[in-house]
Design goal:
The structure holds 2 protein chains of 2 kinds.
Chain A lengths: L5 E11 L4 E11 L3 E5 L6 H9 L6 E6 L2 E2 L10 E4 L11 H11 L4 H14 L15 H13 L5 E5 L7 H18 L2 E6 L2 H7 L2 E6 L2 E6 L1 H6 L4 H6 L4 E11 L2 E5 L5 E5 L7 E7 L5 E3 L6 E10 L3 E8 L4 E7 L12 E5 L5 E4 L2
Parallel strand pairs in A: 3-8, 3-9, 6-7, 7-8
Antiparallel strand pairs in A: 1-2, 1-4, 4-5, 9-10, 11-12, 11-14, 12-13, 14-20, 15-19, 16-17, 16-19, 17-18
Helix pairs in contact in A: 2-3, 2-4, 3-4
Chain B lengths: L10 H7 L1 H4 L1 H21 L3 E2 L5 E2 L5 H7 E2 L9 E2 L1 H33 L6 H9 L6 H12 L4 H9 L12 H26 L3 H8 L4 H30 L2 H6 L7 H8 L7 H29 L2
Antiparallel strand pairs in B: 1-2, 3-4
Helix pairs in contact in B: 3-14, 4-14, 5-9, 5-11, 7-9, 9-11, 10-11, 11-14, 13-14
Magnesium ion binds next to helix 1 of chain A.
Chain lengths: 357, 305
C-alpha cells in the first residue's frame, strides 16, 4: 500500500440540516495507513463529517471518494468503512465473540472462519479471555476495546473513531492512546479519529485537521499545527499561547516587520495571508525567558505566579496593559520574581509568529 | 422483631429486617383476591351439580369426566375420549394465537411509528391508541357487529365502491371473531412494545448497518432480539385474555366459533348451567395459561442475562 495514495478524498462537502449548516465546504485528503485526526471544539462538525463518510448522513453538496470511487450512492452497509461509536453501541444480547464476528458473518464468512478471525482480533486488543461474556459484564475500557475489535475485524479500508476514549477516565485514556496508536501501526489501516482534546490529537496523529464552526482551519502534522499555526483560532486552540497586539510595518516573503508594545522592533515569520496594519503575534509561554530590563527586551510587570511542580507560571502585564504568560522550568527557579517587580522578557524571533485574525 | 434497629444499621437493613411485616398488605391482597377465589373454583370443580344452579357438597370427578371422556369412567363400557370440549379448547387456542399474531403484525409497526415520532407528540399518539378504552367492551363489540353485518356500513361502502355485488356475510365467521379480538386487545400489544422500542438505542441499528447488515438483517438480528421482552409481554397480554374471551365469540361468532370463554360463561348462567363443570373448565384453562407462562419464564432464564 502506497503511503501517499489517498484513502478518503473529501471534496467541498457542505452539510445543511433544516436550519443549521454543520459543514461549510470541507475538503481534505486522508492518506492510506495514516492516523488522521479531526480536532475542534464541541459543535464544530466533526461527528457530522464522520457520519457523512460512514453514510449515516447524505452530503448536501460536494463529494466523498473512497480510494477514488464516489461513495454517495452507497448505503452505509455497502461502504467498506467501519466505525467505533462514541458510546460503543455494542449489541447487548450477543457475546463479545458474536459482536466481533457480526461484520464478518454479514460479509458472508462461514461461522468457523469468522470465529477464528474474531479470536485473532480479540487477541490483538488483549481480550481473548472475554469472548463468551456479554457487553453488560465488561468494564468501560473493555467495552471500548470490543468496539474497536468489532470494527477492525472485517479489515475495513478506513476506520472511523468518534471520540472513542471520551468515556474512559484519565489514567485509562492515556494507556489506551498508546495501545490504539500501536494497533493502527500494526494493521496499517487509515484511522480517522475524532477528538476535542488537543493533547490527544498532538500525541497520536500523523496529521490533524483543526475545525471550527464547520470550516477547516488548518491541516498539518502536529508539529506544523503547534509551531506554525495559520491563524488565531488554531494558535489559541492548540496549546497555550500569548497573542500580542502588534503593529505590522511590512510583510514580505513570509517574514514580517512588527513593533511590539513598548516600541521594540522584531522581524519574525508570518502566516501566509498576513498583511500590514494591526495584527496578532503568537508566542508560546515556554519560549519566553526572563531577565533584567534592557533596550532589547519587552518590559513587563509581574502580577502573579502559580507553582505547578515542574513548571512555574508567571503572569505579567505589558506596558499596554495586556496580560502575558511565561512558563519557567522549575530548575531555573534561582528566584521567582516578586509580584510587582519589573523585568524584561525576551524570545527568539523564530519563536514568534504573526497570525491572521 | 419489635427491637429497635441496631445502631449504625443502614436504611436498607432496617427495611430488610421489617420485610415480612411490610409485605403483609400484599400477601393479604393476593390471598383474598387471587388465592381464595382460585381455591374455591378448584373445590367447586370436584363437587356435584345442583340442577337449578349451584352445587351439592359431595366430592366427585364427574366434571372432569364429562370434559375428557365419553361413556365415562362410571359406565360399563370402556371409556372413550370426548372430543367436543377438547376441540373447543383447541379452537380457542388457535383463535387466541392467531389474534396475537395479527396484533403483533399491526402493533409492532404502530409502536415503532409512535416511538420514532418527536418526543412532544408521542403522548398524543399513545392517547389516541387508548381512546377506544373509554367505551365499555360490550358496547364496542356490539358496534363492531353493526359495522360488519350484511346491511352494515362496511358492506354498504364496498357495494357503493363496486368491489362486491352482493353483501359479504361476515357475521358468525372466524373472521368476525378475529376482528373482534384484534380490536379488543390491540392496545395491549402496542403499549408494551412501545415501551421497549422507546428505550431502544438507535445507535445499535447504525452499528449493524456499519457492519454490513441490510435493513431486514438489522431487524431480525438486532432490533427484534433487543425489544423482545416488550414483544413477549405484549403477546402474553393479548393471548391470555383472548383465550378466555367470551364477548367477541358470543356476539360476532356463531355456534361454529364457540370458544372456552363462552363455554365457561354458559355454565354459570341460567338453569342450563353446571357449576362444577364450569369450574373444571376454568381450572383446565388456568393450567394451560400457567403452562405457557412457565415455559416463557424458563426460556427467559435460559437466555439469561
Ligand atoms: N440531526 C441534526 N439536526 C440538526 N442539526 C444538527 C444535527 N446533527 C448535528 N447538528 C448540528 O450540526 C453542528 C455540528 O454537530 P456535530 O455533532 O458534528 O458536532 P461535533 O463537532 O461532533 O461536536 P461534539 O464535540 O460536541 O461531539 C452542531 O451545531 C449541531 O447542533
Ligand atoms: Mg461529536
Amino acid at each position: 500500500m502506497n503511503q501517499n495514495s489517498i484513502a478518503v478524498d473529501v471534496e467541498n462537502v457542505v452539510k445543511r440540516y433544516d436550519s443549521v449548516t454543520a459543514l461549510h465546504g470541507v475538503s481534505m485528503d486522508i492518506r492510506e495507513g495514516e492516523f488522521f485526526t479531526l480536532l475542534g471544539p464541541s459543535g464544530c462538525g466533526k461527528t457530522t463529517l464522520l457520519r457523512c463518510i460512514a453514510g449515516f448522513e447524505d452530503v448536501t453538496e460536494g463529494a466523498i471518494r473512497l480510494r477514488g470511487e464516489d461513495i454517495a450512492p452507497l448505503p452505509p452497509h455497502r461502504r467498506p468503512v467501519n466505525t467505533v461509536f462514541q458510546q460503543y453501541a455494542l449489541f447487548p444480547h450477543m457475546t463479545v465473540l458474536e459482536n466481533v464476528s457480526f461484520g464478518l458473518r454479514r460479509r458472508g464468512w462461514i461461522e468457523m472462519d469468522a470465529e477464528a478471525r474474531a479470536r485473532e482480533v480479540l487477541e490483538l486488543v488483549q481480550l481473548k479471555d472475554f469472548a463468551q461474556r456479554r457487553p453488560g459484564q465488561l468494564s468501560g475500557g473493555q467495552q471500548q476495546r470490543v468496539a474497536l475489535a468489532r470494527a477492525l475485524a472485517p479489515n475495513p479500508e478506513v476506520l472511523l473513531l468518534d471520540e472513542p476514549l471520551s468515556a474512559l477516565d484519565l489514567k485509562l485514556r492515556q494507556a489506551v492512546r498508546v495501545e490504539l496508536k500501536q494497533i493502527q501501526r500494526e494493521t496499517g489501516i487509515a484511522f480517522v479519529f475524532v477528538t476535542h482534546d488537543q493533547e490527544e490529537a498532538l500525541t497520536m496523529s500523523d496529521r490533524i485537521a483543526v475545525m471550527s464552526e464547520g470550516y477547516v482551519q488548518q491541516i498539518g502534522t502536529p508539529r506544523d499545527i503547534y509551531e506554525a499555526p495559520l491563524n488565531r483560532f488554531v494558535a489559541d486552540f492548540i496549546g497555550e499561547t500569548n497573542l500580542l497586539d502588534v503593529e505590522v510595518a511590512a510583510v514580505s516573503e513570509g517574514m514580517a516587520e512588527v513593533f511590539l508594545p513598548g516600541g521594540l522592533a522584531l522581524r519574525c515569520p508570518a502566516a501566509a495571508s498576513a498583511v500590514a496594519g494591526r495584527g496578532h503575534l503568537s508566542v508560546r509561554p515556554e519560549r519566553i525567558s526572563i531577565g533584567p530590563k534592557s533596550a532589547e527586551t519587552l518590559p513587563a510587570t509581574v502580577t502573579d505566579h502559580v507553582y505547578l511542580g515542574t513548571d512555574i507560571h508567571l503572569h505579567a502585564r505589558l506596558v499596554d496593559g495586556e496580560p502575558i504568560l511565561v512558563r519557567m522550568q522549575n530548575s531555573e527557579s534561582s528566584g521567582i520574581p516578586e509580584r510587582g517587580s519589573e523585568l524584561g522578557l525576551r524570545f527568539e524571533a523564530g519563536a514568534a509568529r504573526l497570525l491572521v485574525d | 422483631m419489635a427491637a429497635a434497629a441496631p445502631a449504625g444499621a443502614t436504611r436498607s437493613e432496617i427495611y430488610r429486617g421489617n420485610g415480612p411485616r411490610l409485605m403483609l398488605p400484599v400477601w393479604a391482597f393476593i390471598g383474598i383476591f387471587l388465592v381464595l377465589p382460585v381455591l374455591l373454583m378448584a373445590i367447586y370443580s370436584f363437587l356435584t351439580k345442583e340442577f337449578r344452579g349451584g352445587v351439592i357438597w359431595e366430592i366427585t370427578l364427574a366434571a372432569y369426566d364429562q370434559f375428557f371422556l365419553d361413556r365415562g369412567l362410571f359406565g360399563d363400557e370402556p371409556p372413550q375420549i370426548e372430543w367436543t370440549y377438547i376441540g373447543i379448547f383447541w379452537r380457542s387456542i388457535w383463535q387466541a394465537g392467531l389474534a396475537t399474531f395479527f396484533c403483533l403484525l399491526i402493533g409492532f409497526p404502530t409502536a415503532w411509528f409512535i416511538a420514532t415520532r418527536n418526543a412532544a407528540v408521542r403522548p398524543v399518539w399513545l392517547f389516541l391508541v387508548t381512546i377506544p378504552y373509554w367505551v365499555n367492551l360490550l358496547i364496542r363489540t356490539v358496534s363492531m357487529k353493526f359495522l360488519i353485518r350484511d346491511t352494515g356500513p362496511l358492506n354498504e361502502f364496498l357495494l357503493w365502491l363496486g368491489v362486491i355485488s352482493e353483501p359479504l356475510s361476515l357475521i358468525n365467521t372466524n373472521f368476525a371473531v378475529q376482528l373482534g379480538l384484534f380490536y379488543s386487545y390491540l392496545p395491549f400489544m402496542v403499549l408494551p412494545v412501545y415501551a421497549a422500542v422507546e428505550r431502544y438505542d438507535f445507535a445499535l441499528s447504525e452499528a449493524a448497518a456499519d457492519l454490513y447488515a441490510d435493513n431486514w438483517t438489522t431487524l431480525r438480528l438486532v432490533i427484534l432480539p433487543v425489544v423482545k421482552p416488550g414483544i413477549v409481554a405484549g403477546c402474553i397480554l393479548v393471548f391470555v385474555p383472548s383465550l378466555g374471551a367470551f364477548l367477541a365469540p358470543d356476539l360476532l361468532g356463531g355456534a361454529k366459533t364457540f370458544m372456552i370463554g363462552s363455554l365457561i360463561e354458559e355454565q354459570f348462567k341460567g338453569a342450563a348451567g353446571n357449576w362444577p363443570f364450569g369450574a373444571a373448565a376454568a381450572m383446565i384453562l388456568l393450567t394451560i395459561v400457567l403452562g405457557v407462562l412457565l415455559l416463557h419464564a424458563r426460556a427467559q432464564a435460559k437466555g439469561g442475562r
